[in-house]
Design goal:
The protein is globular, with a radius of gyration of 13 Å. The two termini are 17 Å apart. The chain has a single domain (9-78), classed as Zinc/RING finger domain, C3HC4 (zinc finger) (Herpes Virus-1). 17% of the residues lie in helices and 18% in strands. The chain has 87 residues and is an alpha+beta fold. The chain has helices spanning 24-29, 55-63, and strands at residues 36-39, 45-47, 67-70, 78-80, 85-86. A five-stranded antiparallel sheet has the order 2-1-3-4-5.
Length: 87
């Protein structure tokens, strides 16, 4: 049985991380983070759901950019916040 690709993958673009040194909002607020996620639509770098502020998820909801990839060295997976699934 073939799987249907996530329709949100159409939003993926070549991006440059806007704040490669860390979570954009946490850097501005002075907040800690656990892991980082890169928005594959605009290059926003946000903190993961294990971080206190969950900025990657917040960005996905407010900006409508649901697909991220891990921004951790050596990790190459992508996640869709709408479908709560790896893509």
């Amino acid at each position: 049985m073939a799987t249907i690709p996530d329709p949100h993958l159409a939003m993926v673009r070549p991006v440059t991380p806007r704040t490669p040194q860390g979570c954009e909002e946490c850097l501005r607020e002075g907040s800690p983070w656990v892991h980082l996620r890169l928005c594959l639509t605009c290059g926003h770098v946000g903190c993961c759901d294990s971080s206190p502020n969950r900025h990657a998820r917040r960005h996905a909801g407010t900006d409508g950019h649901p697909v991220v990839r891990s921004f951790q060295p050596g990790e190459h997976w992508r996640w869709c916040f709408v479908h709560e699934a790896l893509v």
